[in-house]
Amino acid sequence: MGLSASSPAATAQSAAEPSKQHQVASPPSECPMHQEKMRGCPMHMKASDRRAENTDDVPAHQERAYEYVACPVKSGASQVNDDIDPSNMMPPPNQLPSPDQPFPLSTVREESSIPRAHSDKKWVYPSEQMFWNAMLRKGWRWKDDDITSEDMTNIIKIHNQNNEQAWKEILKWEALHAVECPCGPSLMRFGGKAKEYSPRARIRSWMGYELPFDRHDWIVDRCGKEVRYVIDYYDGGAVDKNYQFTILDVRPAFDSLSAVWDRMKVAWWRWTS
Question: How far apart are CA 259 and CA 78, in angstroms?
């Protein structure tokens, strides 16, 4: 019952990969490398979807995220200076250094490959400073650990790589629905449930396997249909050169007959392959 069961078998992967059918977003507009306009997918242009981006599903820090995405032809310093809010001459609160912070941290954010639902943009990862502030809000105190600015840089790279891995696994499942959603899926929202172990994780623990150190639920927009994915994160040992160390168990939740059928098909393919 290994974790290789997190994605469909090779027979499913022959379907058209939705990830390749997404157009590339165009952030930020001032960067010469990103001037091409993106055309919307007809599958996402139903009457109910012809509206402004649903900001209720999008974290507030995503609204100004592209102002922090580094452009290759601009320096990091000018990028930060351009982020001053003219209304109060201050950067966004979650980018401010915390009191007694031992070293400066980057406020530059990296664009992901994950499309945002109801938008022509993609999700943007937090900066080192945002991640630091988030850890402090959760009760972590830097004085309890011997941590350096280089550690924070590596933490961000590992965090981003985990999310990219998770999306690639979701795309493998979504390839089963390439006909009904030719433009591919997009991510609506997500949430962490570290202490809410999934039934699958608990069953594995009863069989002697370790429990995951984290769990996320991602809500995907499949051309107008919401699909929930459960992602269990397991410790995979040492971090490799690509900043990967996590073993992911990704699968659609048993929220619909369609998801149950997908899981049954993939289980059968693996059993008979």
Answer: 47
